[in-house]
Amino acid sequence: MQHPPNTGNLAGKRIFISRPATDARHFSEPVIAAGACVLAAPLIETAPLPFEPPPADAYDWIFITSRNGAAAGLPLLDRSKPVAAVGPASAEAVEAAGFRVTFLSQTHHAAAAAQAFLEHFGEQPLRLLWPCGNLADPEPARILQDAGMTVLSPVVYETRPVDTVPAEIEAVLREGVDILALTSPSSVASFHHRGYPVAGATVVCIGPATAAAARTLLGRCDREAPVHTLAGLADVLLEPDCPS
């Protein structure tokens, strides 16, 4: 747990974010500076799955919506293919795998990114390969297919709940925190499954899919980040009118 000085509009607030501390820097640093105590721990984990890549002549583009999809799927694919990436984190993972991002969506939401892709390339009946996870939202593929695209979506990694949460953080979550910063629908499901209390906490979600899961499983989402990044999530908490 990181303890800040007692200054700022979040002074003394205990905030849990469902990400590893090493990944949560863009969220943690500004809210710590505002006086919060940040607890960061993943509630889910991912693992690559074996898959048989289609031949290179079976697809025209690669569609990447997450770092995990890039890391697990790209090493076996044709590096000459153009890549559409959703958000900067996906783009960074694409480049780390030795591919070049040809189309970068300005939105961080996969379904909206599919719409944006169609605005640029919708007149062509393209074949897209989308390496995804076992819990991937089918909406992006439906949007593309309804517009005449062919979408191959091999499952290249699985997302599952973690077995344990660090004891110090587990104890605080059982007691109850002031703010929950939730970063994926699967993290919401894991939080709910582990039976942590929600009463008294402000629930803030990174985007619409996470917000929908929170409303279904936790009973509410108090605020949704308009910019679907960790920095955008922090910005919501730093707004003067954010409930806390």
- Lateral arrangement of strands in the main beta sheet: 2-1-11-12-13
| Overall average pLDDT | 92
Number of beta-strand segments: 13
What's the shape? Answer: elongated
How far apart lie the N and C ends?
A: 19 Å
> How many whole angstroms does the radius of gyration measure?
19 Å
Number of discrete helical segments: 9
The fraction of residues assigned to DSSP E strands is 15-25%
Q: Helix amount, in percent?
A: 25-40%
Overall SS class: alpha/beta
Order of helices and strands: EHEEEHEHEHEEHEEHEHEHEH
Low-confidence stretches: 1-7
Instruction: Sketch the major β-sheet.
Output: 5 strands, parallel
Task: Please describe what this structure looks like.
- There is one protein chain.
- The protein is of the alpha/beta class.
- The protein has helices at 25-33, 67-73, 87-96, 110-121, 139-146, 167-175, 185-193, 208-217, 230-238; strands at 14-17, 37-40, 44-48, 61-64, 83-86, 101-105, 127-129, 132-133, 150-152, 155-161, 179-182, 202-205, 223-224.
- A five-stranded parallel beta sheet has the order 2-1-11-12-13.
- The protein is elongated.
